């Protein structure tokens, strides 16, 4: 009995290996999980290598690889008449890599400005005369106005150098939640620093 089952599995596996990408995609959209697995076996390494080359972090590349295949499964945006699946996945992955790098660049820019306390002020304002220690004190004061979650995410991200994924795991919350806290915290921090600057 066991031998018969093994033979059947081998036949199924052989058929799936020779099945076209288009046929596998259709079966995946119909809810066949094994079809998704076959597509991942075929193109998972391609997507991962592109993601890793662009993001240069294993955790980020793994996360993006999963995101790309989930999009393929959920959105039904792939059209075989417009090109091969390999080409579609390559384009999609590169696009998502660029999106993430842009988001990281924007956040890092704000974090760098916050850490260095580079305030844009007129030469007549007394702000230019305060010491670095006083500037740090202003930043600390501004941080106290943030919600606890926002403040913690910003401090872990910059002072401890943790990625947003690492922070999500540490705090036990979804990655999207951490990104939201960081974005809102940065915006609020900038506003508060502007207020403190005007008071000088």
Automatic annotation (TrEMBL):
Coiled coil: none annotated. The keyword rRNA-binding does not apply. GO terms for molecular function: DNA binding; sigma factor activity. It comes from the Bacteria. Pfam families: Sigma70_r2 (PF04542), Sigma70_r4_2 (PF08281). Keywords: Sigma factor, Transcription, Transcription regulation. Residues 138-189 form the RNA polymerase sigma factor 70 region 4 type domain. Residues 39-105 form the RNA polymerase sigma-70 region domain. One of its GO terms (biological process) is DNA-templated transcription initiation. NCBIfam families: PRK12519.1 (NF009172), sigma70-ECF (TIGR02937). Belongs to the sigma-70 factor family. ECF subfamily. This is Sigma-70 family RNA polymerase sigma factor. It comes from Adonisia turfae CCMR0081. The lineage of its organism: Bacteria, Bacillati, Cyanobacteriota, Adonisia, Adonisia turfae.
């Amino acid at each position: 009995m066991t031998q018969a089952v093994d033979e059947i599995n081998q036949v199924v596996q052989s058929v799936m290996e020779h099945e076209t990408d288009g046929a596998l995609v259709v079966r995946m959209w119909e809810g066949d999980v094994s079809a998704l697995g076959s597509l991942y076996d075929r193109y998972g390494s391609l997507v991962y290598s592109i993601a890793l080359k662009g993001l240069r972090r294993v955790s980020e590349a793994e996360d993006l690889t999963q995101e790309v295949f989930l999009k393929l499964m959920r959105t039904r945006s792939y059209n075989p008449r417009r090109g091969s699946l390999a080409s579609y996945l390559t384009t999609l992955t590169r696009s998502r890599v660029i999106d993430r790098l842009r988001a990281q660049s924007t956040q890092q820019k704000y974090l760098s400005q916050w850490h260095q306390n580079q305030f844009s002020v007129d030469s007549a304002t007394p702000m230019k005369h305060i010491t670095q220690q006083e500037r740090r004190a202003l930043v600390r004061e501004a941080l106290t106005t943030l919600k606890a979650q926002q403040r913690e995410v910003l401090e872990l991200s910059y002072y401890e150098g943790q990625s947003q994924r690492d922070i999500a795991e540490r705090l036990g919350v979804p990655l999207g939640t951490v990104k939201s806290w960081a974005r809102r915290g940065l915006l609020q921090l900038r506003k508060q620093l502007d207020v403190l600057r005007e008071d000088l």
